[in-house]
Design goal:
The chain has 455 residues and is an alpha/beta fold. It is built from 17 helices and 16 strands. The chain has helices at 14-17, 24-27, 70-89, 100-117, 137-143, 161-164, 170-177, 188-202, 230-240, 244-253, 271-284, 306-326, 343-352, 367-374, 407-418, 422-438, 441-454, and strands at 4-10, 36-46, 54-57, 61-69, 126-130, 149-153, 182-185, 205-206, 211-214, 217-223, 257-264, 292-299, 334-337, 355-358, 383-387, 400-402. The protein starts with a strand and ends with a helix. This is Trehalose-6-phosphate synthase.
């Protein structure tokens, strides 16, 4: 079988791969079992971007990385990727910053990726490129005479034409996606948005429900949701529930019900709305005072981007406001952490949590929702509260689905979850467990690569 070449913006070192909650490395576990080359940025910043990769060969997995130059990091990563494309694809036009020098840096870095990767490629490789940082990479590789099968997978939402209109280089970005053989999305809605944009901006023609003709190329668009290894995560949750950390957590609760939220510190996650909703819970349903404790883990990210610095300040203030208003000498209602925790530890916390809060304003999928369900004890399961704007909501409709822009609705959902009868919790959990196991990480890898190898 042909070698698989995976390309992502960042390649996590082996020590990090199993510790992150969710993430590409966890989702790709199935794909990494074969003959694989994984190429991307090392995470290191140098004076100039290197085009000679550092290669680490394993038994079956070979990792090749390059360092990013200071200016490329500024324009490619902080600039166009995370200050332009990220807010655009999350429908947040008020947060979008566009600078031509950032876009030029984005194109340059993709060219540098192609220049470093091309000499490592074999004619029969299958190349699978991931996420919004690397949209132009297929076009750049083809300029290096690489004509292998190339697929792209977008892990975040894809914007409709009405949103895409705000991007000055929309035509070039959408046309770059049409240089792939297969383009994958999390949801059917994202796939439809892409196909509409391809027609409007790239002059593509629809030849079927899944296929576009763009110039001399044919591109297939598919919706294949990312998943997790639910059985492995369930075992980890059960094992972790007996750990000393889990026992410390239970002792600290003193019999109170636990509400848990785990997110990156990002404005797309709806954390300010969530904190406001938690405050309204006690105003509107005072019977829950002293009876619950909410743990929010929000690991810091993209700290060089000013929007993220401002968000952290806002959340620090809101946390203090909630605790200042409701705390008692023996009760802190909101526990808020901005450092990451190991997946194994989080698995145990999910299992003991009566409520899982997953309320992003917009999200490609959200694997925390799936991890929370996988971790549950079927005899006494917790309740998932899920934003209608998370990709997971397309299939996980047995969660309590909410509009994250309405703090009162979130507060009502928390009250509903805290008071839900055992029989209803078990019925919802059983349906959600089926979905999480059907839409596994292994199924995502197999189905995505089947589409790519068939083209």
């Amino acid at each position: 079988m042909a070698r698989l070449v995976i390309v992502s913006n960042r390649v996590a070192p082996p020590s990090e791969r199993q510790q992150k909650a969710g993430g590409l490395a966890v989702a790709l576990k199935e794909a990494l079992k074969g003959d694989v080359l994984w190429f991307g940025w090392s995470g290191q910043i140098a004076k100039e971007t290197s085009t000679t990769p550092t290669i680490t060969e394993g038994k079956r997995l070979t990792v090749a990385t390059i360092d990013l130059g200071e200016q490329d990091y500024k324009h490619f990563y902080v600039g166009f990727s995370n200050s332009t494309l990220w807010p655009l694809f999350h429908f947040r036009l008020g947060l979008l910053d566009f600078l031509r020098e950032d876009y030029q840096g984005y194109l340059k870095t993709n060219e540098d990726f192609a220049a470093a990767l091309a000499p490592l490629l074999r004619p029969d490789d299958v190349i699978w490129i991931h996420d919004y940082h690397l949209i132009p990479l297929a076009a750049a590789l083809r300029r290096h005479n690489q004509m292998q099968r190339m697929g792209f997978y977008l892990h975040i939402p894809f914007a409709p034409t009405a949103i895409m209109d705000a991007l000055p280089c929309a035509e070039e970005i959408v046309s770059s996606l049409c240089d792939y053989d297969v383009v994958g999305f999390q949801t059917e809605a994202d796939k439809r948005n892409f196909m509409a944009c391809a027609v409007q901006y790239a002059g593509a023609e629809l030849t079927s429900d899944h296929t576009l003709s763009a110039g001399k190329r044919s591109v297939r668009a598919v919706a294949i949701p990312v998943g997790i290894d639910a059985d492995a995560f369930a075992k980890a949750a059960e094992a972790s529930s007996g750990s000393k950390e889990a026992k410390r957590m239970q002792e600290s609760l003193v019999g109170r019900k636990l509400i848990v939220g785990v997110d990156r510190l990002d404005y797309s996650k709806g954390l300010t709305n969530r904190f406001e909703a938690y405050s309204r819970l006690f105003d509107r349903f005072p019977q829950h005072r002293l009876k619950v404790s909410y743990l929010q883990v929000a690991a810091r990210s993209r700290e060089d981007v000013i929007r993220y610095q401002n968000l952290k300040r806002d959340l620090d203030r809101l946390c203090g406001k909630v605790n200042g208003k409701f705390a008692e000498f023996d009760w802190v209602p909101l526990r808020y952490m901005t450092r990451s925790l190991p997946r194994s530890l989080l698995a145990g916390f999910y299992r003991s949590a009566h409520v899982g809060l997953v309320t992003p304003l917009r999200d490609g999928m959200n694997l925390v929702a799936k991890e929370y369900i996988a971790a549950q004890n079927e005899e006494d399961p917790g309740v998932l509260i899920l934003s209608k704007f998370a990709g997971a909501a397309e299939s996980m409709d047995q969660a309590i689905i909410i509009n994250p822009y309405d703090p009162d609705q979130i507060a009502e959902a928390i009250h509903q979850a805290l008071t839900m009868p055992l029989g209803e919790r078990q019925a919802r959990n059983k349906a959600l467990q089926t979905i999480v196991r059907e839409q596994s990480a292994g199924a995502w890898c197999r189905n995505s690569l089947m589409e790519l190898r068939a083209c």
